Amino acid sequence: MSDIDRAVEVLKQGRLVAFPTETVYGLGADATNARAVGKIYSTKGRPGTNPLIVHVASVEVARRYAGVWPGAAERLAERFWPGPLTIVLPKMPAIPGNVTAGLGTVGLRVPDHPLALELLRAFDGPLAGPSANRSTRVSPTTARHVREEFPLSAAAGFDDANEPAMILDGGACDVGIESTVLDLSGATPTILRPGRVTAAELEPIVGRVIVRGGSVEAGTPAASPGQQDVHYAPSTPTYRFETSQRGLITPDGHGIVVVSPLRIFKEWGPIVAMPNDPAEYAQHLYAVLRKLDASGLRAIFVEMPPDVPAWGAVRDRLMRATQVMPL
Ligand code: TXA
Ligand code: MG
Q1: Is the CB of 51 under 6 A from ligand 1?
Q2: Pocket test for ligand 1, best of 80, 86, 320 (most atoms within 8 A of CB)
Q3: Do 198 and 254 sit in the same domain of this protein?
Q4: What is the CATH number of the domain that holds 302?
Q5: Distance between CA 83 and CA 194 in Å, rounded?
């Protein structure tokens, strides 16, 4: 039996399968089975107020689960699917309430990964799939990251009913951060979560786009974790600073690492130089954070990339992963 056949069998039993997408690894459950979906929340320790994204194999399947399918959705799907764009629309009753945290809308996307598409076609139904990490932790971008998140289920041969029963390995994710979430259920299209697909790319297709919860301006006081709906953070204290604050950084050489997209200060000691391109930076971000987190450092200092739209999604994830630096 192929891995995909086995995964389909496990999903039909109402159990969970971790699967690769182009953004991050997802923790999949049959999106029409409320009990299976419930396992996603318990396995991740995810609050029931945070709705899940529903993955489908094609536009045709998406139309079946959306209560309305406006022209804007059709044009976006044509341009960006398969791809890292989630479209929020009124939902059909076949999607149980716990998928959407009780909301009347559902987030739908067709992922751009051959294994994910193969799984969705073979399963022949929608899969609810948040990132395959425990709640508040950094999202996984390799199958190994997923195994690290669920070491107990790995040790138990993935037999625990409330853990992923299987992990499909599709290599490292290309995009590296979660999809752009665009809400089409209101009067004006609204970005609820920034991602690889930017407002500038959406506007020619759907007109004016509002960006909610986008990049936080440089120099604003620390948003408390509670103000951000999720806090995807390493366990090592991780601080952010703007390039203008470089002069204020005084690392004392005790294993402090600075992640910088720009020029590097030699005096700072060990440094991880990140790519200067937003897409490449995003691709590596979570893997770098996970690696640093496992290195027994006292602290991680992250230089924020420029506060411009091209870096919006990366800045958004860094805001959630870091605290403002105590100066
Ligand atoms: O890239 C991704 O989107 C990854 C991969 C696995 O596809 N999935 C992912 O799923 O990030 P998840 O469940 O962690 O994303 C949930 C987020 C919510 O926090 C919310 O921002 C938005 O998607 N969302 C989902 N459904 C929504 C809805 N009905 N209304 C508003 N926002 C929704
Ligand atoms: Mg997540």
Answers
A1: yes
A2: 86
A3: no
A4: 3.40.50
A5: 14
Q: Are 271 and 253 in contact (CB under 8 A)?
A: no
Does 206 share its domain with 248?
Answer: no
d(Cα 318, Cα 327) in Å, to the nearest integer?
A: 19
- The protein residue with its alpha carbon nearest to ligand 1, atom 3, reads 179
Q: What is the mean pLDDT of each run of 10 residues along the chain (327 residues)?
A: 96 97 98 97 93 98 98 98 98 97 97 98 98 94 95 60 87 98 97 97 98 53 37 84 79 58 56 89 94 86 91 94 84
Q: Which domain holds residue 144?
A: 3-211
- Cβ–ligand 1 distance for 26 under 6 Å, the answer yes
Residue 50 counted as domain residue: yes
Cα–Cα distance between 97 and 78 in angstroms, integer?
28
Number of domains in the chain: 2
Segments of the chain assigned E as strands:
16-19, 26-30, 53-55, 85-90, 105-109, 127-128, 164-167, 180-183, 190-193, 210-211, 238-241, 257-260, 271-273, 300-303, 323-324
Record the pTM: 0.91
